[in-house]
Amino acid sequence: MALFVVIAADRPGGLDLRTAERPAHRAYLAEQKPMIMVAGPLLNEEGAMAGSLFIIEAADRAAVEAFSAGDPFTKAGLFERVEIKPWLLTVGGFA
User: Residue 87: pLDDT band by 50, 70, 90 thresholds?
Assistant: First the structure.
């Protein structure tokens, strides 16, 4: 297993779509909980939700791509871009 960071930036004006799709997104995350180490919304300078950040534990990048593709936010077209990067935990840990 390996760790990956997923950084997803909302498209401009996406807050209404984010709000509408949030219940489905949260239900999806509950189903995927075993692979999610940490997750939460990214905020803009005003404190409004403007993206998503995940640290995922998965066998490979393909599994993370499948996770991202299955997210209702992705399916609804909320994200302007999604970055997936391999990540190495060196300080701290997960409870």
Answer: very high
